[in-house]
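okkk here we go again. third time trying to get the fe (ii) ion bound version out, last two times i messed up the smiles copy paste (missing a bracket lol). double checked this time i swear
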Amino acid sequence: MLRYGNVSVLGVVLFGILIFAADNLSAPLPKAGSVSVNFGFLLASLILYGPATAVIVTAVVVLNIREFAKRVPYYKHIFNAGQYLISMGIASIVFENLYNRDIVNFFYPKNMGIIFLSVLIFFISNTVLTTGAISISERANFINVWIFNFAWLIPSQIFLGVMAVAISFLYRLYGPFTLLFTCLPLVIAQYTYLLRIKERKALLSSILQIVKVVEAKDVYTAGHSVRVAEYSEEIARGMGLNEYDIEILKNLANLHDIGKIQIDLSLLNKRGKLSDSDWKKIKRHPIVGYDIVKEITFLKDKADAVLYHHERIDGSGYPYGKKGGDIPLFAKILCVADSYDAMTTKRPYREALSREQAIFELKRNSGKQFDPVVCETMIEILEKKYQEK
Ligand SMILES: [Fe+2]
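finally!!
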């Protein structure tokens, strides 16, 4: 017997309040959308009251006031709302058709299997639709976007499924007041995650402010780090790196010259020839930068890209004169991106090179200063851009 028409007012009110609260603690995803525990509550309302109640409660998610307040573009909101409702709708229909409500044993294995099948269906539908939208709008690889944004959510979805079973079981056994105890762990988990994301964002934005201060010391490097980050991202995408690595690389690119904070203003803007001692000071900036970046938890594993961004394939770079295979890939990408931007911007001692001249220099130094594969990728990107204009 399908129960599509039966709506429980109590269910709508209780789960609606819970979802509204959880949604206002939902955390932004690395690239787009947001992650929230509210699916656990939606599933519990589906198990307890059936699809009609669950879909009405889903509408509370869809009418998320916080997103309206943030002035999310209306088409994004309609897309999010639509895909969420569709995903929950499909999961609800499958659930209601297969779940046997006549069985007294709540933990009847087949019914448990149906609950987790519904979790799987919702997760796949929800993430595939969102991934499709992101990969189209950002022209990014579908699989890469999915892995970066959603693969890590699988354990939490299983956890939400288990929590929904526990919430429904206790609710049915002892009544609605049990929600006070069962929903607490979910809301705490949500809040902890939100704090972590906020902390990371705050840390990054304060570091980027420091980068701006460093660049402001030298009139010729204003905006340099941002451009190096853009070029690095393009190269990494062209080389097929995953979205997670691209994000880390972009942050490292923004910070690659942060070691210049230790160099005197007079030296950075010196117009005449640099003395040996001047060069010695300048050549320390990758080491100083590395010491700073390695203290940032989520960047420390790849911080050596900052340390080696002036190393050259033929061993003629600094600070250590490392050769080809000993230089990490991220450092090789930063080196090409950094050099291209340096060549194409005006410096105290020379005019900016044109794009063709810079491409010529990249070709001339491929295999000597630059890694040939990285260099080739950058040249392809630049030539493609040139043709487009
Ligand atoms: Fe540098």
